[in-house]
Amino acid sequence: MICVVDRKETKMTNFKTLYYFESETFSLIEIKRILPNETDKSKLFFWLLFDKQGARLKKLNFVSMRSDGDTQFRVFENEQLSFDSQKALLILNNEDFSENQINFIQ
Prior knowledge:
Blueprint: E1 2-6, E2 11-22, E3 26-34, E4 45-51, E5 56-60, E6 62-68, E7 71-76, E8 79-83, E9 87-92, E10 101-105
Antiparallel strand pairs: 1-2, 2-3, 3-4, 4-5, 6-7, 7-8, 8-9, 9-10
């Protein structure tokens, strides 16, 4: 669990890590905010991509998800992710990063 200070209301906001993937140059994480009275999923779930070399953090804009056996799929506005319990592949369809695909291990 990650805990950060909410600067607007000086209270603690809790997060739960759902998925974490890492490569030599990037980290990818899905977090869920722990907000007991919130039902809007766009305020609860976040996918974040961290570029280690450029020290940049990008929030991925979630569109849909599905699974096929042991493989999970996530579609974002400009990215597509497929993963299982061992590895992940993120396809980048934008010019924010120099790479167009990233292989991760979990």
